[in-house]
Amino acid sequence: MTIRNGGAALGAMAVAVFVASTGLVVRGQPANSDQQACNALAASRIPAEMIGLPTKGAQVTSAEFKAATPEVKEAPTPFNPSGVTLARLAYCEVKGEILPLDPAAPGIRFQVNLPSDWNGKALQQGGGGYDGNVVAAVGALPRAPDTAPYPITRGFATFGSDGGHQGNDATFALNQEALTNFAYAQLKKAHDVAMALIMARYHRAPSKTYFVGQSEGGREGLTVAQRFPQDYDGIVVTAPAINYTNLMLRFNDASAALAQPGAFLGAAQIKTFGDAVLGQCDMNDGVKDGIVGNYLGCKIDRAALQCKGGTSDTCLTAPQVAALAAIYDPKEWKDASGKVIASYPRFLVGGAEAAPGGIAAWITGRAPLPKPQPAGKDFNPQQLGLGIGAFYGNSAVRYLIVKNPAFDSLDFKPQQYAQQTAQAIQLLASNDPNLAAFQKRGGKLIMLHNTSDLAVSPVATMNYYDAMVKTLGKKTVDQFARLYIVPSGGHGGDGDVPSKVDLLGLLDQWVDHGHAPAEDAVAQEFGPDLKVTRAKPLCMYPNYPRYVGSGDKNAASSYRCTPTSGT
Ligand SMILES: [Ca+2]
């Protein structure tokens, strides 16, 4: 099998590098510099035979050498609160596209980054939401401490894809190949293309291959553990969006509740609820610090928030209390005979409900879904002021389940589309707890979830872990998997909370050096100057960090991992 290079690479100085172990041939200039080695990959073509699922092969569209860059500090932004971009070592940025079988399907765009100073390992990074943008994989990983060197600077060959379509909504789901790509196939295709390019650049396969992803990327991480266990030595998932379709149904139910007359929750009502969470539960971990530590021990009395005659900003109407129930309570959807066709667990509270990444960002936005709804491309979530989940739920109903861009998602009843709903659930569940194949080949899995996550329920992740234990036994699970629960913090661990931890470092120590992670790691919070302002122990489910009663409440040593109470 060959990677064939075009253009200047076939000049008088051209040579062929033969790699006996694979039969791979790279034709190009003698690789007497990193830049030339990079240039030699430009216009490469990876034949379909080198990709483990059906494609028409892959085409490299650019290979550009990126010189090392120093650390830069700029004005802080919401996406980069410290304003700091860390240093990067030199690498070769390879971009390209995996060509679809169906001419009407979009290609899978990818980026592979090949460091000059390679550590011999590869790292695939997952996407987010509905994917739709190429994951560049040259920056910070989810939850990484502000000071942690980027994977590319640690010497990892990194790569990511666009999930098999462009645009962060579900319109792609109208095409079956694009939908199958999103569900799982693009992960294998992008992996195999990256492996071919790594072989072409370094003439050997990675000693270890990891996957790191958050949210949809977390679902992708569990998907590869379940479907392609032989390809990965280690996987990190944070806030994984398993039971993806069920989650979208939850978003849509919350939208329907919030669209009822008098039900919408504005900033004042969200603050009232957030204050109640902290008022009732902040001390359940032994310290008043804006964090509900004992995450299964907090039972909020929502009825107590209901206005007693009249309305004000510090109480909720009955429809608003009902909307909170639709946001937080467990849900089952049943068919006409009463059979459960889908379910989703409850959400937890952690103290960051009223923070910028909380209820307003994910659920309410600035306005409820309108009725009637604009159809298709005229449906603009920013213009409509929607919460992210309201937009995602609408998109799932229209494109993933009903397959009608004009369908009004507020009219959706899963039981009326039971077959389509069941198909979508099965395709995107990624919740098979039997990871025996991954465990037996020596794979390691680290999962982490924050408890104020309004995008994906931490209880869904706990349920998945419990199912793993039930399927494989606790002793086996302990040998290869960890679930860390971090109290408070939003979907990305955001908010005023210590939740930064070098999960890639923990994974690499486990996989490559045999040091299994325990409860000796800490979750950190950083100030704008990259200094640690607060730390707590990183506790394994079902433990939480409980204040010991004395000592600096911002120091991890003042906490002990303690079993959470409640159910
Ligand atoms: Ca507390």
Describe it.
The chain starts with a strand and ends with a strand. Strand 18 and strand 19 form a beta hairpin. By secondary structure, the protein is α/β, with parallel strands linked by helices. The strands form 6 sheets. The chain has a 10-stranded mixed β-sheet, sandwiched between helices. It has a 3-stranded mixed β-sheet with strand order 1-3-2, with helices on one face. 28% of the residues lie in helices and 19% in strands. Helix 4 (244-258) crosses helix 9 (388-402). The longest helix has 27 residues, at 176-202. The relative contact order is 0.11. The model is unreliable at 4-30 (pLDDT under 50). It folds into 2 domains: 33-243 and 430-563, Rossmann fold (3-Layer(aba) Sandwich), CATH 3.40.50.1820; 246-425, no CATH class. Bound molecules: calcium ion. Calcium ion binds at residues 282, 285, 287-289, 291, 293.
Which strand-content bin applies to the residues? 15-25%
The end-to-end distance, rounded to whole angstroms, is 56 Å
Please identify which CATH superfamily of the largest domain we are dealing with.
Alpha/Beta hydrolase fold, catalytic domain
Small-molecule binders here are: calcium ion
Per CATH, the architecture of the largest domain is: 3-Layer(aba) Sandwich
Radius of gyration: 24 Å
Number of E-state strands? 21
In short:
This protein is 28% helix and 19% strand.
Q: What keyword list fits this structure?
A:
567 residues, alpha/beta, Rossmann fold, 2 domains, 10-stranded mixed β-sheet, 3-stranded mixed β-sheet, 14 helices, 21 strands, 28% helix, 19% strand, globular, binds calcium ion
